[in-house]
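Escalation from tier 1.

The customer reports that the assembly of two entities below gives different C-alpha cells on two consecutive runs. Tier 1 could not reproduce it. I'm attaching the input and our single run for tier 2 to review.
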Amino acid sequence: MAKLDVAAIKADFPIFKRTVRNDQSLVYLDSGATSQKPFQVLDAERNFYENHNAAVHRGAHLLAEEATDAFEHARSNIAGFIGAQPDDLVFTKNATEAINLVSYSFLNATLKSMRGAELPKGAERFVLAEGDEILVSEMEHHANLVPWQELCEKTGAVLRWIGLTEDGRLDLSDTSLFSNRTKIVAVTHQSNLLGTVNDVSTIVKLANSVGALVFLDACQSVPHMPVNVVELGVDFIAWSGHKMLGPLGIGCLWGKSEILSAMPPFISGGSMIESVSMERTTFAAPPKRFEAGVPMAAQAVGLSAAVDYLNAIGMAEVAEHEHMLTEAALAGLSGIPGLRIIGPETSFDRGSAVSFALEGIHPHDVGQVLDESGIAVRVGQHCAKPACIRYGVQATTRATFYIYNDLDDVEALVAGIHSAKKFFGV
Amino acid sequence: MKLENMYQEIILDHYKHPHGKGLAEAFDAEVHHVNPTCGDEITLRISRSDDGKLSVSYDSMGCSISQASASIMFDQINNQDFDFGDTAVDHLVSMLQRSVEADEDILGDGIALAGVAQYPARVKCALLAWMAWRDAAIQAGADNSTKNEDSVDSTKEQN
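Tier 1 run:
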C-alpha cells in the first residue's frame, strides 16, 4: 500500500504556513474537532462565489442553472463517496442538525398521527407510543444522545442504552436491550472520545431481528476510513463536512430511499414543498423535502472538492496511515508513567482519537503546556460526559490524527507530555 | 517562556495546597457551578451571620487555575461582607479583561492570576469560584437588592 506523502499533503494546507505560540510551527492534533482545509477546497468555494453564485433551484438565468448544476453535482459526488444514490443524501447545517432531523421526524409523525393528520406512506414506523424504546450507547457524543432524550421526554418513549466494557467497547452481552419495543438504535460508528470503532454488523443484526431502524453517527468514520452504506446495512448515517477537509456549515444525512420517503419534514418553508395553498401544503420528495430554504451551495461545492481530495489519496490509504500513527501514539503514550489511556489500549478496531488522563495534572493544564509548544489538542469532556463518568475521569486530553500528521507529530506529543510533567513536578 | 506568567509559583502552591476546601454542614445558600467545556466544577455554600459577614465553604475539582483561584477566593472574601466580596469579583473581572491594574489590597494572591488574561480560554477557569460566590451570596439574600426572602431564587443548579 502506498505511503502518504505527508510533506506534499501539508503543502496543500495554507494553515501550516503560519506559526503559532513562540513562533513555532503548528502541530495540529485536533482534527477530531475540525479538520484543516486544503487550498483545493478553499478555491472551489471561492470559484463558486466568483463565477457561478446564484440561489439554486430558483431563477431562469444562466447563473442559477450553473449554481444548481454545481450543487447537484456535489450531491452526486458526495453520495458516491459513501456508496449511495444522490437522491438519498440530504444536506443539513451540520451533523447535529442531521440527527435532529431524524429525531424530529419521529416527533412530527407522532404529533400528526395523534391529530389524525395526513402522513407520508409508511410513516407508521416513526409514530412513537408510550413505552416504545430508543436505544443509544453510553459512548455517544451529546449530539447523538440529547436529541433522543428530548424525543423520549416529549413522546413517553423510553431511552435505553448499551453500556461499555472496561476496555472501552460496547457491551453487547445483554441482547434483551433489543426488543420489539425498540424503534430505533442510534449509535456511533467511531467514538470521538475513546476512538473505539464499533461492530456495526452485530448491531444491525440485533436491530433487524426486532425490526428497529439503525442510525449511525459517522462523524468520526467517514473522514477517516472507507465507508459504504450498502455494506454497513444501516438505515441512516450522518456526518459533518468540516471534519473531512470540507467547509463549516454543511452536514450530511443519508437514509435508505424508502425510509426517507416515509418521513414527514423537519424544517418547513420554501423549496421543500410540492404545492401550497392557504389551507394546506404537500411536500416534495426527498432530499428536497428536508432542505427548506436556500441551500448552502458553496459549502456543498467545497465539500465535493474535499471528497475529490480524499479520493485522490484513497480512503484505505488514509485509514492505513492513521492506523500507523495511532499505533505509534499508543506505544509512546503508554510508556509515560502516570498516563492512562481512556479507550481501547490496542489499535484493533480503533480509530485515531486517543484520549488520556495524566495523574496529577488536569487536562486543561496539559493542553496549555502542549499549546506552548505549538501542539493543538482538545481537552475537556469532548461532548461525551457520560463516557467520562463511566471511566471515572472528570475530563481528558485528546489527540486526533489525520492525513497531514506524521510520526514527528506523535513524537512532539510525547515530548510535550514529558514537559508538562516536568513543569508541574509530577 | 510565557507559560510561567500564568502558572506562577504562588498559583501552583494554592493548587497543590488549597485553602478552605471542604463543605460546611450549615448554610443559607448553596450553588453548583460548572464549566461545561472542560468539566471544572464547584459546589459553594454561604452562611450569613448577624453582623452581615458571609462565611464561605466549597468543594471543587478542576484545573490548576480554577482550583488555585478558589483557594485565593477563600483567603480574600471568606468572612467578609457582600460589598467587599462583590468589589473583589468586579476587580478580578476587570483585571482579567486587562482594563485595570491588579490591586493587591483587593485581590491578595489573586494578582498572580493576571497572567491568565493572556489566555482567553482560561478566564472562565479563574472566574468560576468567584462567580459561584456572588451567585450564592445573592441567593442567600446578602446583596441589598434581594433582601426580600421571597425573591431569592431557590435554584441550586446553575449553568
